[in-house]
Amino acid sequence: MIRTLDLVLRVIIIAIFSVLVGCVVWQVVSRYVLGTPSTVTDELARFLFMWLALIGGAYTLGQRRHLAIDFLTGALKGRAKTLSEGLILVIVALFAILVMIKGGWALAAKTLASGQVTPALQIPMAWVYGAIPFAGLVMLIYCGHFLAELARHGAQDKPDAPVGGPLD
């Protein structure tokens, strides 16, 4: 299931990024070559960037490549390390549930109920804000998966290596 989620998120991120690049290129061409900036691509680029950042952040959590201050957890061994990593995952999951899913859903529902639409695209703002609970749900799924792994295998001692792998 996690591999499928990873694949789906990669496809979504690549698609959003591709459309975002197209929007920005068209924005530059329409502004500086044609002399009339496109308001539609400007607005679309802003919303796509928000979706890209939120979904990309959730995906990065799932790849365990997110920013982390792990000097305390890195110094621990055995059961203490497992408990520390478990506590961190529970805190991240609570954030995802309370702030992103519950709060994001409330924000999207409130804007949907108010009938608020985007100025240029004329789509409901709830669709734009939908990125927040979606990313929160993805983060929650990854936290659940990591907690299950932690319960099965305990914390794994991994040597520190740069994100791209060891330097040669």
Q: Layout of SSEs?
A:
Elements: H1 2-32, H2 39-62, H3 71-75, H4 78-114, H5 125-129, H6 131-153
Describe this structure in words.
This protein is mainly alpha-helical. It has one domain. The chain starts with a helix and ends in a 15-residue tail after the last helix.
Please give the number of β-strands: 0
Amount of beta strand: under 5%
| Major sheet | none
Low-confidence stretches: 160-168
Q: Could you list some keywords that capture this structure?
A:
168 residues; mainly alpha; 0% strand
Short description:
The chain has helices spanning 2-32, 39-62, 71-75, 78-114, 125-129, 131-153. It is mostly helical and 168 residues long.
